[in-house]
Amino acid sequence: MTENDYGYSMSIGNKYTIQQTVQSGSIDGKCRATIMSFLSLAQDLASSHYGTGGRSIPHLQKEGFTWVVTKQHFEVREYPLWLDCYKAVTWAKKPRGPFCYRNFAYSYAEDGKYDTVDDAFADQVAKGGSYGQMPAGLSETADAAAQPFFTGSSLWMVLDLSTGRPVKMTDELMGSLQFCEDSVPGEEMAKIRDPEEWTFGHEFTPTNLDIDLNGHVNNLAYDRWILSFLPEKAYAGKLVKAIDMYFIAQAMFGDELVCRAAEVEPDVWVHSIIRKADGAEMFRARTEWAPEWEISRPVTTR
């Protein structure tokens, strides 16, 4: 077990596990964890796990390579509330050609789902925990992926920085990273088709806060944009139940972009981000929404 910014992390059965508490900066107006907090944590998990094998982006950049994510699929069965505690797990599957497969599962920690906010505060005090850390720590025998409320899969590649082309994965390139072949729903990542008509559009420009280690727009910015630039009918009284994302091309600082959207069936939206100058598509996504009462519980106090 090692300590990091989340408190503690460990590897169990070749799965990388951290502890997490739903913090006030990661909740919506009804004290629920946001879908963006789940996606951001997934990126941190992947980065940290690759780093444990000496394969983080800074490690690869020294050798003339870098990581990029190309596809993602996530499903949410329930949204935790503020101060709920959970375990977040990621694992890498064996590469196939240039493709690296990575899965995720988040599940409540033991006694980590509270009846009231007051119970959550009282439990942290009783166990000597501090805000933002799960007071009980991690259990080396617990299955952190049991009955997950969030699952996901992603597809990654390593690019040669001199050519911009993907490279075939080798044992040397993967370092000491260990693999696990456990599966999660949605690994097939079906193609996202065009709607009959794009019914909504919003023009914008990336800022310096959207740029990542590779010098282009961070993948999380695309997620935030498609969820931000939507008509109210898409999200009023609803939460994201599933999301598919395809990263097609690299948007850069200063690009003029257009975020398009269309409802292709009830509570299912297709999204696309294009470059205004030439119409080149940067990103495509599909979101499925559910009534909030189906996949969340109300926050209560004593």
Describe the structure.
It is built from seven helices and twelve strands. It has 302 residues and is α+β, with helices and mostly antiparallel strands. It has a twelve-stranded antiparallel beta sheet with strand order 1-2-3-5-6-7-4-9-12-11-10-8. β5 and β6 form a beta hairpin. The two termini are 36 Å apart. The model is unreliable at 1-7 and 131-142 (pLDDT under 50).
The run of helices and strands is: EEEHHEEEHEHEHHEEEEH
The number of strands is: 12
Overall spatial form: globular
Q: CATH homologous superfamily of the largest domain, by name?
A: Hotdog Thioesterase
Number of helices: 7
Distance between the termini: 36 Å
Query: Could you list the spans in which at least 5 consecutive residues all have pLDDT below 50?
Result: 1-7, 131-142
Assign the CATH topology of the largest domain: Thiol Ester Dehydrase, Chain A
The mean pLDDT is 88
CATH class category name of the largest domain:
Alpha Beta
Nearest-angstrom radius of gyration? Answer: 20 Å
How many structural units, i.e. domains?
Answer: 2
In the CATH hierarchy, what is the architecture of the largest domain at level 2? Roll
Record the strand order, biggest sheet. Answer: 1-2-3-5-6-7-4-9-12-11-10-8
Strand content: 25-35%
Largest sheet: 12 strands, antiparallel
- In helices, the fraction of residues equals 10-25%
Secondary-structure-based class equals: alpha+beta
